[in-house]
TrEMBL record, chain A:
The keyword Iron-sulfur applies. It comes from Humibacillus xanthopallidus. Residues 278-360 form the 2Fe-2S ferredoxin-type domain. It comes from the Bacteria. The keyword Flavoprotein applies. This is Ferredoxin-NADP reductase. One of its GO terms (molecular function) is oxidoreductase activity. Keywords: 2Fe-2S, FAD, Flavoprotein, Iron, Iron-sulfur, Metal-binding, Oxidoreductase. InterPro entries: 2Fe-2S_ferredoxin-like_sf (IPR036010), 2Fe-2S_ferredoxin-type (IPR001041), Beta-grasp_dom_sf (IPR012675), FAD-bd_FR_type (IPR017927), FNR_nucleotide-bd (IPR039261), MRET (IPR050415), OxRdtase_FAD/NAD-bd (IPR001433), Riboflavin_synthase-like_b-brl (IPR017938).
UniProtKB/TrEMBL annotation, chain B:
It comes from the Bacteria. Residues 72-340 form the Fatty acid desaturase domain. PANTHER family: DELTA(5) FATTY ACID DESATURASE C-RELATED, FATTY ACID DESATURASE 2. This is Linoleoyl-CoA desaturase. GO terms for cellular component: membrane. It comes from Humibacillus xanthopallidus. Pfam families: FA_desaturase. One of its GO terms (molecular function) is oxidoreductase activity, acting on paired donors, with oxidation of a pair of donors resulting in the reduction of molecular oxygen to two molecules of water. GO terms for biological process: lipid biosynthetic process. InterPro entries: FA_desaturase_dom, Fatty_acid_desaturase.
Length: 360, 389
């Protein structure tokens, strides 16, 4: 390590004020260790709306654990946008994300990504991962919530003869169901996997098309009678997860939801929590912008060209923290107004409540 | 020139406050039209320029490894000079203005960019972006008017030091990057008293500047010459020449921005309570363009569109050329003079002013006055009071 440092120091004498990586980057775009990148190696259309993007990451990537997510940066109309995506490939394999075309960024990724494109990356994160010791598992997923669970199934089922996994996946129609055929094949091949598809619109089998009801345990009992004895993993829309949490709390084995691990893709913001807003000043960047009270500070900063740190964009990962210099902010999840000088603000879920100065 | 407010014929006297606000609205619309269409093509442009500049610099330095051969020296030096000019002007100056911040690329961003110049970007951004671009051409507020070592306006008080200003200007041109660094450090003011010299804030800034200069000098005059082995001295000469060419070129272009004839200056009190429209108007009258070919515009970092740049300092430089006709049409519509001329003409005009103003304003007039017969003149006020009596 010390030698590398000396080498870097010498190299930077040659390249100052640039860093040696800036010069290496002229030849190999993956060489930068400051900005991790990946090159797209394969693009697979999964459903009419979703695409799996396989990529080979450059220097600085850590192999992902099944179920983890990574931040992915993509340029749209010349502007770099960052979003977080669950990694759908099995652990130990080159990573892949499965993107459903909802919103500007995901739509661009799902529709316009080509082999050879460069993606900006951050290292894998998240603790929605498999248990350390073998246990019977229940996976409860809806829509694109299947992606992290798919990584778990691909990792666990073919490798562990003692695996015991039940997957209940809810989708609108068979055509919309991600990894539909692959899951059925895996279930055929490996006795350790049972797959129950639930179709909310058109099952193609004549079964009644309705939402999976987690308001009580009836549907679950039918699909997986021993659900209380399994370690459960759930991922899907906010209301789906809220219902699951309540159900486990109420009807679960030990009156807690300890048996249930959930992964959220979006956070429910309280409607109407926005207040008057105000002038936001990004001090180090020397930028200011007048924003409404329902716009997250993260979006406000990005809009005027500040390079804002960001992560999950829903108030979980705390990658977006910025010290508050002055003013008050409003938490868009709870409506609470807070703000002490020096307080670290989660910019993705807080908005201006009057004039705000941030230390970035 | 004389501050606009004292002129016999005020060039904005015909504009009502409503005209000026309307002018502001129309300029805002031009600005918005560029922002609305900023996109992938612009991003590709700046990346291409940065990529090409780095390759040109790398290639030129590689050729200079054998600079003892005269053709290699000439080609390498020319390439390096061009690379340094592009790096300072079309890339450095414009990136540090935040013209490319909208891409959200932390590598091409005003908060992270460092340039191949003696002045650290942080200090340059303060004196240039905050002071010069805010107080453009306001006497006593904008130190860019003569950089504190020259008198470039009749309303700047003459002192004997200015007699030698043509020489100062020439020396400044040759060592322009160090001139900028000294200027950003406000060296004249800060070295004047012991208290200022020992001010910890000044000392910290000076330390940063010296470290940067040391790195730059080590690179250009030690490391790369050493790598050239037997071409050691030739490479030193080549790098010095490239720096000199870059210094003189950037100095000349920048002189053309605010010094040529036709550019207006403003009184300090005239900007109190200035509206957005009035600020725009001051930028329009306080700057001058350079006409020329596409290549010339590129090599000036599009500062040849100084008027457009001063109106919209944070719009991407590659778009100034496209909005220039619209801006020019607004000048015509509001009866204002769009000051522009070829590079030789504007450089000559700026130099003429530096030379003329090295002497006091009334120098020529005093000399002439001696030969005119002195007529007894009755002061007007006295005449008035007599008539009243």
């Amino acid at each position: 390590m010390a030698q590398i440092r000396v080498l870097r120091r010498v190299a930077s004498l040659l390249t100052t004020p640039l860093a040696p990586e800036d010069i290496l980057g002229l030849v190999n775009p993956l060489s930068s260790s400051r900005q991790l990148r990946g090159v797209v190696t394969k693009v697979v259309r999964e459903t009419p709306d979703s695409t799996t993007i396989h990529f080979r990451p450059g220097r600085g990537w850590n192999p992902h654990a099944a179920g983890q997510w990574a931040r992915v940066g993509v340029e749209i109309d010349g502007v770099r946008h960052w979003r977080s995506y669950s990694l759908s490939a099995a652990a130990g394999h080159d990573p892949a994300i499965t993107v459903t075309a909802i919103g500007v960024v995901s739509t661009a990724l799902a529709r316009d990504t080509r082999v050879g494109d460069i993606l900006f990356l951050d290292t894998p994160q998240g603790d929605f991962t498999l248990p350390e010791h073998p246990r019977p598992l229940l996976m409860l997923t809806a829509g694109s919530g299947l992606t992290p669970v798919m990584s778990m199934i691909r990792t666990l089922v073919p490798r562990r003869p003692d695996a015991d996994v039940v997957l209940i996946h809810s989708a609108r129609t068979p055509a919309d169901a991600l990894f539909h055929d692959e899951l059925l094949e895996l279930a055929d091949q490996f006795p350790g996997l049972t797959v129950k598809h639930w179709f909310t619109r058109d099952s193609g089998t004549g079964a009644p098309a309705r939402r999976l009801d987690l308001g009580d345990a009836t549907d679950l009992e039918t699909l997986c009678p021993d659900w209380r004895d399994r370690a459960a993993y759930a991922c899907g829309p906010a209301d789906f997860l809220d219902a699951a949490t309540e159900l486990w709390l109420r009807d679960g084995h030990d009156d807690t939801h300890e048996n249930l691990t959930i992964e959220r893709f979006a956070t429910a913001l309280l409607p109407g929590t926005g207040g008057e807003g105000g002038l936001v000043t990004f001090e180090k960047s020397d930028k200011e912008v007048e924003v409404d009270g329902d716009v997250p500070l993260l979006d406000a900063g990005e809009e005027c060209g500040v390079v804002m740190p960001s992560g999950c964009r829903m108030g979980i990962c705390r990658s977006c923290l910025i010290p508050l210099v002055a003013g008050k902010v409003r938490d868009l999840r709870t409506g609470e107004v807070h703000g002490d000088e020096g307080e670290l603000i989660q910019t993705c879920v807080n908005a201006a409540a009057g004039p705000v100065n941030l230390d970035i | 020139m004389t501050v606009l407010q004292k002129k016999a014929h005020n060039p904005i006297g015909h504009l009502t406050p409503e005209d000026i606000e309307q002018l502001g609205v129309e300029l805002d619309a031009i600005r918005q039209s560029v922002i609305d269409t900023r996109g992938a093509d612009d991003a590709a442009y700046i990346r291409k320029v940065i990529d090409a500049q780095r390759k040109l610099e790398l290639g030129s330095r590689a050729i200079l490894l054998i600079s003892m051969f005269p053709p290699a020296w000439v080609v390498g030096t020319a390439g390096l000079a061009v690379a340094k000019i592009i790096e300072n002007m079309e890339i450095g100056h414009n990136v540090m203005h935040g013209q490319w911040d909208w891409m959200r690329d932390p590598k091409i961003h005003s908060t992270t960019w460092e340039w191949d110049n003696a002045s650290p970007s942080e200090q340059w951004k303060h004196s240039h972006n905050e002071l010069h671009h805010t107080y453009t051409n306001v006497i006593g507020k904008d130190n860019d008017l003569g950089y504190g070592i020259m008198r470039v306006d009749e309303d700047q008080r003459w002192v004997p030091f200015y007699t030698a200003q043509p020489l100062w200007n020439f020396v400044n041109a040759c060592f322009f990057e160090y001139g900028i660094a000294a200027y950003d450090l406000e060296l004249g003011k800060n070295l004047a008293t012991k208290e200022r010299r020992n001010n910890p804030e000044f000392r910290a800034r000076a330390k940063v500047t010296l470290k940067k200069i040391r790195n730059q000098v080590t690179k250009d005059y030690v490391i790369h010459p050493l790598l050239s082995g037997p071409s050691f001295l030739n490479t030193i000469a080549a790098n010095a020449t490239a720096n000199l060419v870059r210094n003189i070129w950037t100095h000349s272009v920048i002189m053309c921005g605010h010094f040529p004839e036709g550019v207006e200056t403003f009184e300090r009190k005239s900007i109190v309570g200035e509206t957005r429209g009035e600020w725009y108007l001051r930028q329009m009258l306080g700057s001058a363009n350079i006409s020329g070919s596409k290549a010339m515009h590129f090599m000036t970092g599009n500062l040849s569109f100084q008027i457009e740049h001063h109106l919209f300092p944070d719009l991407p430089s590659n778009r100034y050329q496209e909005i220039a006709p619209q801006v020019q049409a607004l000048f015509a519509k509001y009866g204002l003079t769009y000051t522009t001329g070829s590079l030789p003409r504007q450089v000559a005009s700026a130099w003429k002013k530096v030379i003329r103003l090295s002497l006091p304003n009334d120098f020529g007039r005093k000399a002439r006055a001696k030969v005119l017969p002195l007529l007894p003149v009755t002061p007007r006020s006295e005449a008035g009071s007599r008539a009243a009596a």
